[in-house]
Design brief:
alpha+beta, Long_Oxdase, 696 residues
């Protein structure tokens, strides 16, 4: 393996100095390109004009103006030129979050746009180079890029706007007080933390003297799939089991609950992964515990219609058996899944209230908090209090107690195959400097939807289904502004209510579910499209009064995982019209919920849909609101028209489970058709999208 593999995808390794040096070998900017790059980024959070500042400071908000007046003023006047280190921060963030092949694409675009040829003119309508334009001209140009008919320009805009806004809000120069955000959880060192004991783990240290290792079973991945498989195998069979994790284990005492630390240490590509066309943000865990470490505690079991579809269409009758029901109950009991002692936060109360007022169904969502009240909006950055029953608190602890061994910060290059049988794996540590082998009788890939298909493709498997049938549960959002309510959507219990009014849009049980998310500043700033410097600053100034409603869609039509020249995953996904209809149905219903609950303004994740101000005594029947809903539908969410994301990757990213080797990559027991003793135990084997979190 080349060094890029570990530095890009190895959890905390992705942010170290070495990875940046490696990337700089492949990504060079000359002085002209640097000026252009920073001139673009400087548009997104630039200093407001005197007229804009007057509008900005009159933004209606309950944030304590007198207490934070200087910070609010500083936020309005901030510009990148006054922050000499921001250019370095931007570049570091770009290198951390962008795979090598995407860097090459950005570099190519910068090269074209710094010429005084047709490409430069077509993007600015000026013979001047971009950085020679004044701020207004640059802002006008960038705004037009967001709705460009040229996919390459629109893609470039999405990449740079996402990069800039996230880089700023992950560390906004002590400006959190301007928007009323406290930073890390104020209770971080309180009794909830000090009164708990947490599991301790030891890891095999791989050194230059390490020889080949011998185990009965080696499992790649420590998340929801790998942890359960390890604990059960070690307990039931007495096998010697090794779990290899490419990410790092952070003890609860090491979880800072800072948004920047959370993304950079616990997420794939530092939380900045994009699909190949930049239309979708992809959030995936890269740590010891995987997605369960960063999940929001939501613990919904597969719906009856999903299980029936898997049994009837894929020959997987096990999902309708009592044994599967018993397995679900066992998992729920171990994770403490129930609805006991759930305290709805302000955001979920508004969702519930709005649903009741429009007659939409809404129910409490089970949580994996062992019947304890779990009011922790920072759980996306790891649960410092151990209240969320992630696998670090449960199945990995069980595995450890049964004798399972662990290696962290370790990248598995390939599965070793002899005579069509898996016989172990080849892996590296220290950014590829040390290579070693683990010999095993059985190999289990549990790397998740992104990396299981990449691992098998790197290992030379030829089954045509590997990497196909990718489902993402595409997520889109709308927001409502409640200027007289302190909502603080990031505080309290996360995602504890759901509206299923649009769960069956097409009559075949494909549709959307509506939740509330926990949106910390960087996520909030990138979940909705940038429109102008003024609008962005006004939007963030109202941060504590905004409730985002998420439309999470059960997608019918899949994408695909391929690998790049280094064998790392590339995500290809284009929202079909069928699934776009489900998204739109969810967005329209979400807007009605917000209006019924009393929002004064609403907005969507769509680039070409402006914010709408609510008026009248009967706003749900107001002709202008109904016209607004029609515009939301007409504009749509396809072809880069909206900010989409995926927080669940599943369902045969690597090749579906089934009873037919021509239509699936693994058999009903999870063993690959192509190689004996090679199994898959993660969301990759889902035959279709589950429409719910695949981690529990």
């Amino acid at each position: 393996m080349t060094d890029e593999k570990n530095s890009i995808h190895g959890g905390s390794q992705s942010s170290d100095a070495k990875s940046i040096d490696i990337f700089n070998e492949h990504f060079h900017l000359n002085e002209k390109q640097k000026k252009f790059f920073y001139a673009i980024c400087g548009v997104f959070i630039s200093e407001l004009s005197e007229k804009e500042f007057d509008t900005y400071k009159n933004t209606k908000t309950k944030t304590n103006i007198s207490k934070n007046e200087e910070k609010i003023k500083e936020f309005g006047q901030i510009n990148f030129e006054s922050k000499s280190d921001f250019s370095t921060r931007l570049l570091d963030r770009l290198l951390m979050t962008t795979p090598q092949h995407q860097l090459a694409r950005i570099s190519s675009m910068l090269k074209k746009m710094t010429s005084k040829g047709m490409t430069s003119y077509s993007m600015t309508n000026s013979s001047k180079l971009f950085y020679e334009l004044d701020l207004k001209q640059r802002t006008d140009a960038v705004t037009k890029w967001s709705t460009s008919q040229k996919n390459s320009i629109k893609q470039f805009y999405k990449t740079i706007s996402y990069l800039t806004c996230s880089a700023f809000w992950l560390n906004p120069y002590d400006l959190y007080p301007a928007i009323g955000y406290p930073g890390p959880d104020p209770e971080i060192n309180g009794s909830r933390f000090k009164g708990r004991t947490f599991p301790e783990y030891e890891f095999i240290e791989i050194t230059e003297d390490t020889k080949d290792l011998e185990f009965d079973v080696v499992i790649i991945g420590s998340g929801a799939g790998g942890s359960v498989a390890a604990a059960r195998l070690a307990r039931k069979s007495g096998n010697s089991v090794l779990i290899i994790e490419k990410g790092h284990h952070y003890h609860q005492s090491e979880l800072t609950l800072k948004e920047k630390d959370g993304y950079e240490k616990l997420y794939e590509l530092g939380g900045g992964m994009l699909s190949e066309d930049s239309s979708m943000t992809v959030l995936s865990g890269s740590n010891f515990g995987g997605g369960t470490t960063i999940g929001w505690s939501t613990s919904s079991e597969p719906s009856h219609f999903v299980r029936e579809e898997w049994a009837n269409n894929f020959g997987l009758n096990h999902f309708m058996d009592d044994e599967f029901n018993d397995s679900l109950k066992a998992i729920q009991n171990r994770l403490g899944v129930n609805t006991n002692n759930i305290v709805q936060n302000e955001s979920n109360k508004i969702l519930i209230d709005g649903c009741k007022k429009i007659g939409a169904p809404v129910v409490t969502v089970p949580q994996n908090s062992a019947s304890k009240s779990h009011e922790c909006g920072w759980c996306g950055f790891g649960c410092r209090y151990g209240e969320k029953q992630s696998v670090v608190m449960t199945y990995l602890k069980d595995a450890k107690d049964y004798g399972v061994k662990f290696i962290q910060d370790c990248f598995v290059e390939k599965v070793l195959i002899e005579n069509n049988k898996a016989v172990g794996v080849e892996a590296t540590v220290n950014n590829g400097e040390k290579k070693f082998r683990v010999n095993a009788k059985k190999v289990i890939a549990a790397c998740g939807g992104l990396h299981s298909p990449a691992l098998l493709l790197r290992s030379g498997l030829k089954n045509k289904n590997i990497g196909k049938n990718l489902f993402t549960n595409p997520t889109a959002a709308v927001y409502g502004i409640f200027p007289n309510k302190d909502i603080k959507n990031y505080s309290g219990t996360v995602q504890s209510a759901v509206c299923d009014a649009k769960e069956n849009v097409d009559g075949e049980h494909y549709g959307a579910r509506i939740f509330v998310g926990s949106y910390h500043p960087a996520m909030m700033s990138t979940a909705f499209p940038w429109k102008s410097p003024l609008e962005h600053k006004q939007f963030m100034l109202q941060y504590n009064h905004i409730i985002p409603l998420l439309t999470i869609t059960r997608d019918r039509d899949p994408g695909q995982i391929r690998i790049d020249s280094n064998g790392l995953p590339k995500l290809y996904y284009k929202l079909s019209q069928h699934d776009a209809d489900s998204v739109i149905a969810g967005l329209q219903t979400s807007l009605k919920i917000l209006v019924a609950a009393g929002a004064t303004k609403i907005g969507t994740c769509q680039v070409d849909v402006e914010e709408f101000e609510i008026a009248g005594e009967n706003p749900l029947n107001d002709i202008k609101f109904l016209q607004y809903l029609e515009k939301v539908k007409k504009v749509g969410v396809s072809s880069g028209q909206a900010c989409l994301s995926s927080i669940h990757q599943m369902g045969t990213w690597y090749g579906r489970m089934g009873d037919d080797p021509t239509k699936s990559a693994v058999n009903p027991l999870g063993e690959t058709w192509e190689v004996k003793n090679l199994y898959v135990a993660d969301s990759s084997v889902f035959p279709t999208s589950a429409g719910a979190s695949p981690m529990r």
